[in-house]
Amino acid sequence: MLILASGSPRRRELLTQIGVAYMVNPSTYSEESPKKKNPEKYVQAQALGKARDVAEKFPGQWVLGADTIVAIDGEMLGKPRNEAAAVEMLRELSGKKHSVYTGIALINGHKEYTKVVETKVWFRRLSEKEIKAYVAFGEPLDKAGAYGIQGRAAAFVDKINGSYTNVVGLPLSQVCKLFHKAKVHV
Ligand SMILES: Cc1cn([C@H]2C[C@H](O)[C@@H](COP(=O)(O)OP(=O)(O)OP(=O)(O)O)O2)c(=O)[nH]c1=O
């Protein structure tokens, strides 16, 4: 059975939604600070790091790891450290376009398949009041870029270009393509 190297409830829900059977084993891989690298390289390295960490414990089994980050104006936004950081992030995203990158890594021993998917997201202008209320509601803290498109932040989004499930944390069409490429029967 596939092992999902993730503690993210969104990733579980997405795999369940498409009928994939899996076991969860979150990785303890410590995330690097997203500062310098480019976003594609960053999410790919993180997804691989998470998958390799778990794969060590399950020789001979397929392991899927993923990592999601928001990029805007050459800056990368991961999960906010606290409420003040979440407010800052949402102020930055307000009224602008940003990109969400998810890296996925499917591995089994020395066999490693990776893919990075980008989705562009346009936010309408948000008032200070809306930002504060959204952060106080508690949705942003465990999410890259301090928002959840699947939650109340759906009302912030004018349009997207690309995979919706990629924004939520796992690009399902591309995950299926990776299963086919690796000949993993799920
Ligand atoms: C942009 C966005 C992110 N997210 C979430 C998906 C991810 O769970 C999280 C990004 O953090 P990640 O570090 O990618 O993942 P994680 O720490 O939650 O879980 P794990 O490392 O164990 O796999 O942000 C949403 O749920 N909705 C959104 O709209």
Automatic annotation (TrEMBL):
InterPro entries: ITPase-like_fam, Maf-like. The active site is at residue 67. GO terms for molecular function: hydrolase activity. The record marks 10, 68, 150 as: Important for substrate specificity. Its cofactor is a divalent metal cation. The keyword Transferase does not apply. It is found in: Cytoplasm. Its EC number is 3.6.1.9. Transmembrane segments: none annotated. CDD domains: Maf. Its main location: cytoplasm. The keyword Transport does not apply. It comes from the Bacteria. Gene3D superfamilies: 3.90.950.10. Keywords: Cytoplasm, Hydrolase, Nucleotide metabolism. It catalyses: UTP + H2O = UMP + diphosphate + H(+); dTTP + H2O = dTMP + diphosphate + H(+). Belongs to the Maf family. YhdE subfamily. Nucleoside triphosphate pyrophosphatase that hydrolyzes dTTP and UTP. May have a dual role in cell division arrest and in preventing the incorporation of modified nucleotides into cellular nucleic acids. HAMAP family: Maf. This is dTTP/UTP pyrophosphatase. The lineage of its organism: Bacteria, Bacillati, Bacillota, Negativicutes, Veillonellales.
